Amino acid sequence: MSTEARAVAWIGGYPEDSGTGQQGIRLLTADEAGEAAETRWVGAAESPSWLARHHSAAVLYAAQESAGTLAAFRIVGTTLTPFDEIPAGEAVCHLLVGPDLLIACCYGDGDVVRVELHDDGSFGERSLAVPSIDPHAPEGDRQSRAHCAAPLGDGHIVVSDLGHDQLRFFDTADILQQIGTVVLPMGSGPRHLWVHSTSKVSVITEYSCQVITVERINEGPWRILSTVSLLVGDVPADAAGAELTGSSDGAVLYAGVRGPDLIVTLDATATTVLGRTPSGARWPRHHRQLGDRLLVANQESDEISVLQIDPATDLPGGVVGRISTPAPAHILAIDAP
């Protein structure tokens, strides 16, 4: 590795699944040209499938999915030192960090957890939202599966419930007070969210492999605005929608689909598919644009593939680099807020 190597991103994932035996968070470094890149282990954590930064303190948080806990690490340069840990919920899989609180979503039991944060980044009081009620089968036995939370401004958030096929809206001011819902088609599996504005949100669905956009007008109820399919024809049995992100210039959205292993590019309104690009390896669980490259965390291939983005169209092209790393699941830019 070049002496000019710089820290690029924190990498979370499931390294125990890859047989390396070295569970924890890794650091991605690259040379100034972005050509030579590698990851190295920097902190012990159990299945750190999602990472997030504190807004002001030098603290990194990890959702320890297999342990069902939240872990906090102090950041000194590129060194991580664990300093706090609390229970979250079964299979905690996503974190949203605000100035003074953290929201954790738990896939296993459906809990949405509100945790107050102290000024030094340590954990404070913990409370839960009221449990989700399945709008399709209120007397049934489908498991609630909270999967992602996103901010809407003024202390409001939206949470996807993959198991109950709905979006839930909360005021986070003092407790998690539910203030609205949008019911999505049964069996769609809403997973990860992209916020266009305080009144418009898109969600990628794991099971139906669609992007569904919802909106509200004049403070009225939220409603479905549009639905677009990410695949052509019937959805294969092994297909699963994954991550939904926006390009750095705001012109397009990137949607990952596992199984077919694609990055699907949509227009900014999330209504039109502009292109479908192979992810470069197996099971693209997460992706993130860094500069003119799209980094794709291919969990089952134990690698991050690097796709070149066409500056004229924002479409990702072929693989221009491969970075070996065990079972990656999340890429967090080193300078992310």
From TrEMBL:
Q: Name one GO molecular function term.
A: 6-phosphogluconolactonase activity
Q: Give the source's domain of life in one word.
A: Bacteria
- Among the Pfam families in the record, one is Lactonase
| Homology family | Belongs to the cycloisomerase 2 family.
What is the name listed in the Swiss-Prot or TrEMBL entry for this protein?
Answer: Beta-propeller fold lactonase family protein
